[in-house]
Structure formats: C-alpha cells, structure tokens
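pipeline: protein-struct stage 2 | run 1193 | Putative phosphoenolpyruvate synthase regulatory protein
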Amino acid sequence: MTNRTVFYVSESTGITAETMGHSLLSQFDAVDFEQVYMPYINTELRAHALTERMQEAAERDGVRPIVFATMLDDGIRQILRGGNCFYMELFEGFIEPLAEELGVAPSRMSGRSHAITRPSSYTKRIEAINFAMANDDGIRPDNFNRADVVLIGVSRSGKTPTCLYLAMHYGLCSANYPITEEDFVRGDVPQEVWDSRHKLFALTIDPLRLQLIREERRPGSEYASMTRCEQDIKKAQAIYRRLNVPILNTTTQSIEEISSHIVKIVGNAVTRPLVGGAR
C-alpha cells in the first residue's frame, strides 16, 4: 500500500477539517494514511512550525503530505500553502459563493460551527444523551413511552452506540432493549416493547461479524461461539418478523448511516401504521 501523511489543520478545534477529510479519504482504500491532528494553528509562528513538520513528513515518506484545512485567516493560509504539501482549503470554495448568494458578508470567525449558538438545541441534546444513558440495555422499559426511538437487537449488535449517536447529533431520546435468552425461549418480547412498536427499530448483524465482536469481549466463551451467534441472529429475526418493524443491518453500515435511516423514518413515526394488529 502507498503511505501518505495527512494533516488536519484549523485555527480552532479542527473537527470540521477532520470530518470532511475522513469522508474524502474513505474513498481511497489502496492508500495507508498516517493522520496528524493540528488544531489551533492560529498564529504565524505556529504556521511556520507546522510547515517544518510537513517538510519532515515529505522527506520521510518520499512524497509531500496532504493537508485538509479550515483557515479563515489569509496570512496563515498563505504560509501553509507555501509549505511542501498538497493543500486543500475546505472553506475556500464555499464561503464566497454563499456570501454572494445571501448578499451578506461572512463573519470569518473561527469555531462558529461548534459554538453553542442555539441554547435550546444544546439543552435538548444534553437531555437526550442523559436519557440514552439512563435507558440503556433495557434498564427502564417503563420509560419506553417517553422515548423517540427504541432499538432492539441481540447483544453486541450496535444498540448503545447508535442510541448515543442519535442523542448527540439529532437530539433524539433513544432507548434500547437487548433480546435475551429468556426472550428466545418464549419467542417473544415484553409488553413494553410491543407497546413501543410504532417507534421500534430492529438491528441485525452478520453472524461472523458478531462472533468477532463477541470474541473480543469474552474470548473462547460459548457466548462468542459461531453456533451461538448464528442461533441468536436466527431467533431474533423470527421475533422481528412477528413485530413487523424496520430492520437495519449494522454489518456493513456505519453508525452514521444507520442513524440517518432511522431519522428519515422517524419523521413519520407517530403516524406510521401498525401492520398486523395488536399482539
């Protein structure tokens, strides 16, 4: 594989540069990227020091590094452009055309995209995060009626991280219920889960992928065996069919992709008809 050093550079936190850079680099599987995070490059002195690091990376790799940057200060930007690097300014192609369309000059203040500009939205997300943590792993099924989303799935299928992502990025109060051996024996889930069917989403996963995840948690255990994983998935699928709810596969889809599917459906969740009648 080809090796390239990548710098994520910003006057502020660098979150935007990192997010956009990751999205672009994900399309190039044949390259091994060494990633370097350089936030708060907000003085010319720091910018010059960074160009020295770029030169070191170029000499080590035998090819110039790639720089993803969100620099609003033109002076600092020109210093970085002058370094031995392939420089991509992620704001440059968007700010001026957008300003022209809006008829308003940009503030050119760093860190604005991550500032708490809407306190009500910030408070909603904090409350959603607290809700997800307090209602994880089926701890409080009596609270499912207060949730915006309820996820079900076998152990280690991705319920908890998805709930937290929905809370942090969308402000959705999310709870989850793990399908247990008791549920498999009965071939059914508790009444609280049925009562939440209009906002219920089932997560499934390939047995091989599940086995790898469980093996990391409990090496050599019956819980992590391929036979157990295959049986758990098969029995869970039967329960999902009874519930007749959307099923999302976490094998090849990221948490972000799963969450976006859920959010799209949740727009009509309150009025979504329940097919098949009551339990």
